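pls design
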Protein backbone atom coordinates (compact mmCIF):
# COMPACT_ATOMS: atom_id res chain seq x y z
CA UNK A 1 0.00 0.00 0.00
CA UNK A 2 1.22 3.49 -0.87
CA UNK A 3 2.28 5.63 2.09
CA UNK A 4 2.62 9.40 1.92
CA UNK A 5 6.11 10.73 2.51
CA UNK A 6 4.92 14.20 3.49
CA UNK A 7 3.31 13.92 6.90
CA UNK A 8 2.79 16.32 9.75
CA UNK A 9 5.56 15.90 12.30
CA UNK A 10 6.96 17.46 15.47
CA UNK A 11 9.81 19.27 13.73
CA UNK A 12 10.71 22.72 14.99
CA UNK A 13 9.39 25.34 12.54
CA UNK A 14 11.64 28.14 13.82
CA UNK A 15 14.74 25.91 13.74
CA UNK A 16 13.88 24.97 10.15
CA UNK A 17 13.52 28.62 9.12
CA UNK A 18 16.79 29.44 10.90
CA UNK A 19 18.47 26.74 8.78
CA UNK A 20 17.54 28.52 5.53
CA UNK A 21 20.87 29.71 4.11
CA UNK A 22 19.67 32.63 1.97
CA UNK A 23 19.09 35.61 4.34
CA UNK A 24 16.37 37.13 2.13
CA UNK A 25 14.59 33.78 1.81
CA UNK A 26 14.82 33.38 5.60
CA UNK A 27 13.38 36.87 6.16
CA UNK A 28 10.50 36.12 3.78
CA UNK A 29 9.87 32.81 5.55
CA UNK A 30 9.42 34.61 8.87
CA UNK A 31 7.06 37.11 7.24
CA UNK A 32 5.09 34.26 5.65
CA UNK A 33 4.95 32.48 8.99
CA UNK A 34 3.32 35.59 10.47
CA UNK A 35 0.94 36.03 7.52
CA UNK A 36 -0.21 32.40 7.47
CA UNK A 37 -0.52 32.22 11.29
CA UNK A 38 -2.50 35.45 11.49
CA UNK A 39 -4.73 34.59 8.53
CA UNK A 40 -5.49 30.98 9.50
CA UNK A 41 -5.49 31.31 13.27
CA UNK A 42 -3.68 27.95 13.26
CA UNK A 43 -0.33 26.85 14.63
CA UNK A 44 2.44 26.17 12.13
CA UNK A 45 3.58 22.55 11.88
CA UNK A 46 6.33 20.91 9.89
CA UNK A 47 5.18 18.58 7.10
CA UNK A 48 8.02 16.41 5.95
CA UNK A 49 11.49 17.91 6.33
CA UNK A 50 10.90 21.23 4.54
CA UNK A 51 7.22 22.25 4.36
CA UNK A 52 5.43 24.44 6.90
CA UNK A 53 1.71 23.70 7.03
CA UNK A 54 -1.33 25.08 8.78
CA UNK A 55 -4.24 22.83 9.67
CA UNK A 56 -5.02 19.53 7.99
CA UNK A 57 -7.81 17.64 6.30
CA UNK A 58 -8.47 14.02 5.45
CA UNK A 59 -9.23 13.19 1.82
CA UNK A 60 -10.55 10.03 0.24
CA UNK A 61 -10.77 9.55 -3.50
CA UNK A 62 -13.23 7.30 -5.33
CA UNK A 63 -10.24 5.07 -6.13
CA UNK A 64 -9.99 4.32 -2.42
CA UNK A 65 -6.74 6.27 -1.98
CA UNK A 66 -6.89 8.41 1.14
CA UNK A 67 -4.63 10.42 3.37
CA UNK A 68 -4.05 13.62 5.27
CA UNK A 69 -2.73 16.89 3.90
CA UNK A 70 -2.13 20.42 5.12
CA UNK A 71 -4.87 22.98 4.46
CA UNK A 72 -2.34 25.60 3.34
CA UNK A 73 1.37 26.11 3.72
CA UNK A 74 4.70 27.19 2.28
CA UNK A 75 8.29 26.12 1.90
CA UNK A 76 11.32 28.42 1.54
CA UNK A 77 13.17 26.39 -1.09
CA UNK A 78 16.58 27.31 -2.53
CA UNK A 79 15.32 28.45 -5.92
CA UNK A 80 11.92 29.91 -4.96
CA UNK A 81 9.34 29.95 -2.21
CA UNK A 82 6.61 27.35 -2.74
CA UNK A 83 3.10 28.24 -1.60
CA UNK A 84 0.55 25.47 -1.13
CA UNK A 85 -3.13 26.11 -1.75
CA UNK A 86 -6.00 23.83 -2.74
CA UNK A 87 -6.23 22.94 -6.42
CA UNK A 88 -9.50 22.59 -8.31
CA UNK A 89 -11.02 25.81 -6.97
CA UNK A 90 -12.03 28.22 -9.74
CA UNK A 91 -11.64 31.17 -7.35
CA UNK A 92 -7.98 30.22 -6.93
CA UNK A 93 -7.33 30.89 -10.63
CA UNK A 94 -8.99 34.32 -10.44
CA UNK A 95 -7.04 35.26 -7.32
CA UNK A 96 -3.76 34.11 -8.87
CA UNK A 97 -4.31 36.63 -11.68
CA UNK A 98 -4.27 39.36 -9.02
CA UNK A 99 -1.45 37.93 -6.87
CA UNK A 100 1.51 39.46 -8.65
CA UNK A 101 4.68 37.91 -10.04
CA UNK A 102 4.55 34.12 -9.68
CA UNK A 103 4.63 30.86 -11.57
CA UNK A 104 2.59 27.73 -11.00
CA UNK A 105 3.20 24.02 -11.10
CA UNK A 106 0.63 21.28 -10.83
CA UNK A 107 -0.23 22.12 -7.22
CA UNK A 108 2.27 24.79 -6.13
CA UNK A 109 2.53 28.52 -6.58
CA UNK A 110 6.13 29.74 -6.76
CA UNK A 111 7.37 33.23 -5.88
CA UNK A 112 10.89 34.65 -5.88
CA UNK A 113 10.31 37.06 -3.03
CA UNK A 114 7.42 38.32 -0.96
CA UNK A 115 7.66 41.86 -2.37
CA UNK A 116 6.61 40.43 -5.76
CA UNK A 117 3.10 39.65 -4.54
CA UNK A 118 0.09 41.49 -3.17
CA UNK A 119 -0.12 40.39 0.49
CA UNK A 120 -3.86 41.13 0.68
CA UNK A 121 -4.48 38.80 -2.26
CA UNK A 122 -2.20 36.22 -0.62
CA UNK A 123 -4.33 36.39 2.54
CA UNK A 124 -7.48 35.97 0.46
CA UNK A 125 -5.94 32.94 -1.28
CA UNK A 126 -5.18 31.40 2.10
CA UNK A 127 -8.73 31.96 3.36
CA UNK A 128 -10.33 30.77 0.10
CA UNK A 129 -8.24 27.62 0.02
CA UNK A 130 -9.36 26.69 3.53
CA UNK A 131 -13.03 27.38 2.70
CA UNK A 132 -12.79 25.29 -0.46
CA UNK A 133 -11.15 22.34 1.30
CA UNK A 134 -13.58 22.41 4.20
CA UNK A 135 -16.49 22.46 1.72
CA UNK A 136 -14.94 19.68 -0.38
CA UNK A 137 -14.03 17.49 2.61
CA UNK A 138 -16.68 18.37 5.20
CA UNK A 139 -16.10 15.43 7.56
CA UNK A 140 -12.90 16.84 9.05
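designed seq:
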Amino acid sequence: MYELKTKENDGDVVAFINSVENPKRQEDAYKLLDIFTETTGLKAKMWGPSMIGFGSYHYKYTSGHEGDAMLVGFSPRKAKVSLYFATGDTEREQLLQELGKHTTGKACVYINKLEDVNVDVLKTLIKQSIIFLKDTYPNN
